[in-house]
Each structure stands twice: as structure tokens, then as C-alpha cells.
Amino acid sequence: MEEREAIISWKVAGIALGLLLIVATALVKPLGVSTQFVVTDAAVMHAVAPAAAESNAYLAKYGEKEDWGVGYGWMLVFGMFAGGLVTSRLLRGRQPQADQGSMPAMWVQLFGDSRRKRFAAAFAGGVLLLFGARLAGGCTSGHMISGISQLALSSFVFGVCTFAAAILAAKFLYRQRG
Amino acid sequence: MSTLAIGFLIGCVFGAILFLGGATSYRRILGTLLLKDMWIIKLMCTAIGVGTLGIYLLDLGGLANLDIKPAYLGGVAVGGAIFGIGWAVSGYCPGTCVVGASEGKLDAIFTVIGGLAGAFLFSLAYPTLKSALLDPIDFGKVTVAELTGVSTVYIAIPMSLALLALAFVVLKDRYE
Fold first, then answer.
1. What DSSP character marks residue B70?
2. Of the candidates B36, B168, B95, B37, which has an alpha carbon nearest to the alpha carbon of residue A6?
3. How far apart are CA B112 and CA B120, in angstroms?
4. Could you tell me which chain B residue has the CA closest to the CA of A34?
5. What is the pTM for the complete model shown?
6. Tens digits of per-residue pLDDT, A109-145?
7. Which of A131, A140, A168 to mutate to test the interface with B (most CBs of B within 10 A)?
8. B103: nearest CB among A10, A84, A104
9. What is the mean pLDDT of residues A154-166?
């Protein structure tokens, strides 16, 4: 490809991510993201509808009236937003054109340029992602990257099932349409 | 330094790596899932290869704060499959949608909002799912080494080397 592939190569990103996982495991605990969506939901529910939050067996496990469950894990996800914000502001010019914007060219070619359609799919995808991640107990970071690195049985099962379903779904979406 | 500050700093580096390494790119994620563009899978194999070796060594020195997720296989398998479909439909995972949102990508922001809704839906379905998928077939917080009785070193080192070989030697992009 003629265009720059990304700001840093997969090699540099992969090695850096592996080292970051080692540092996190030594200092506090491995990386994870999806739990924090529940923590955020629980915090909002405790603020808006405390009775409903307390009666919800799952939300009640994350955060209470006094302490909203904002700990290491939540700060980590907040940090991801901050880190992405700063680096993207500083280095946007070096990001490949194809990776910018809210309407990916691949999507537009297949589904048209309706923003409503793309955003509806992004929303629906998000619902499935977090419903699935919470059912499985983790996501790409917690299960696949951190979990497989610790040789956890559950994470190998998650990795196989996730990739199988994702590949089938992608092939179905991008099948030859006649 | 407080645990909160450490979490924030680790998160900052994590977010920067995902942005800089192109992990928030729709064409790269879908390219990987269509088995054409190997960028993301090579990045992940490298990270897991390095991570497996490092965590093994940390644990030898008694320095690893491990966090093994329980193997309730029904929930993990069904949840993984639902997650995979969401990954292909949105082009993001829970971490990359947060970073994509920080870049100002509107589709990523919709995925974050959908994620909050999905986690909430799960909390409503939790009592039903717990008895159906979480409680039956639960092996607990077990590693493959403990399950098979093979010493960790004989799994961690070969797997780490195999993943690095996969990333650096075996996998090649397949564009027609």
C-alpha cells in the first residue's frame, strides 16, 4: 500500500501493549475495559434511581451510594479516553486518511452514505458487544489480551468463540450481493 | 502513587497505543475479520506473546497480581459469540470505541452509548442468565496448565514463541 499504514507499526504497538500489560500486572492487576461500562451504569442509576439500582442484583454489585465504584479500572478507561484525545489532537495529521472520520469508506461502499444507518449499526453493535462481554466476563482486553496471557481456560474459550462469530458475521455482512 | 493515578496513567498509554497503532480503524478491524488485512491480529499476537512471557516471569518472581476469569463455559461461549457479532457490526470493541470516541468519531460515540445500554440490558437479564448459563458447567478460575496438569513453563514459553512467530513470520496480508 502506498499510504502510510498507521502512525506506529503493529510491531511497535504490539510490543508496547505487551509491556504495558506486564507493568499493569506487576503494579495492580491486568488490563480490562468492559466492567467499567457496568460501573458507569451503576453510578448513573444510583444517582438517578437509587431504589432501582439497589434492587438490581447485578448493578448492586458495582458501586454503592457512597462509593460509586470508581477505582483503578474506571480510571484506566478514563485514561484511555484522555490518552486517545491528546495523541489524536497532536498527531491527527499523520493518521492515514482512510482511518479518519465517522463514515468508513468500506461501509459506505456497501451500505451507502446514510449517517443514520451507520450510527444505528454502531449503536446496535455496541449493545451486542457489552451484553456479550458481560455475559462472558470480559472483552478483547480483559479476556483475550490479559486472560490468554495468563493462560486462563475461560479466555481461550472466549477467544475461539469470539473470532468464529465475528468472522462469520463479517463474511455475512460483506458477502457478494447480486 | 495512588492506585487511581496508576490506573489513569496506564490507561493513557493504552489509549495512545490503540490510536497510534491503528486499532480504532474500521477498515483494519473488518479487514482482519474478513481475513484479508492481518494488521490487528498481528498486533494482538505480538501483545499476547510478549505478555505471556512477561507474566510467566513475573509470576516466577512472585510479582504478578493475576486475575483469572472464571470458566463458566456456557456464558463464556454464548457471550463470546454475541460479542463477536457486535464487533463485526460496529467495527469496535469496548476499548477501541472509547478511544475512537476521543478522536471525535461519531460512530464510536454511538457504540459507547450502545455499550452502556447493552450492559444495562445485561443487568436486567442477569438473574435469568445466571441460572441458565453462568452456574451450570463452571470450572472456576482455572488456567490451562492447572486443568491439564502440564507445568506452566511448557505451555507459556512455546505459546509465546508460537504467537510471535505467527505475527512476524507466518501471517501475511491477502489482498487480491
1. P
2. B37
3. 12
4. B94
5. 0.95
6. 999 999 999 999 999 999 999 999 999 999 999 999 9
7. A131
8. A84
9. 98
DSSP string over A105-170: HHHHHHH-S-HHHHHHHHHHHHHHHHHHHHHHT--IIIIIIIIHHTTBHHHHHHHHHHHHHHHHHH
Distance CA B55, CA A26 (A): 8
Confidence tier at B174 by pLDDT (50, 70, 90): confident
Q: Which of residues 66-85 of A touch B (CB under 8 A)?
A: 71-85
A–B: how many Cβ contacts below 8 A?
523
Contact flag B67-A30 (C-beta cutoff 8 Å): yes
The answer to whether A130 and A34 have CB atoms below 8 angstroms apart is yes
Residue carrying the nine cell digits 512477561: B54
Q: What is the pLDDT of residue A61?
A: 83
pLDDT digits (tens, 9 = 90+) for A61-114: 886 655 667 899 999 999 999 999 999 999 999 999 999 999 999 999 999 999
CB B94 within 8 A of CB A33: yes
B166 DSSP 8-state letter: I
- Burial degree of A52 (CB within 10 A; 0-12, 13-18, 19+): exposed
Is A53 part of the contact surface with chain B (CB cutoff 8 Å)? no
Question: Which residues, 6+ apart, have CB-to-CB distance to B80 below 8 Å?
Answer: A132, A136, A143, A157, A158, A159, A160, A161, A162, A165
Whether chain A has a CB inside 8 Å of the CB on B37: the answer is no
Over residues B11-16, the mean pLDDT reads 98
Subunit contact B58:A26, Cβ cutoff 8 A: yes
Report pLDDT for A18.
98
Contact between B30 and B165 under an 8 Å Cβ cutoff? The reply is: no
- For residue A9, pLDDT over 70 is answered with yes
The answer, yes or no, to whether residue A1 has pLDDT greater than 60, is no
Assess A49–B contact: CB distance below 8 Å, yes or no: no
Kindly determine whether residue B94 and residue A34, on different chains, have CB atoms separated by under 8 Å: yes
Spatial distance between the Cα atoms of B100 and B86, rounded to a whole number of angstroms: 16
- The distance of B28 to chain A (nearest Cα, Å) reads 9
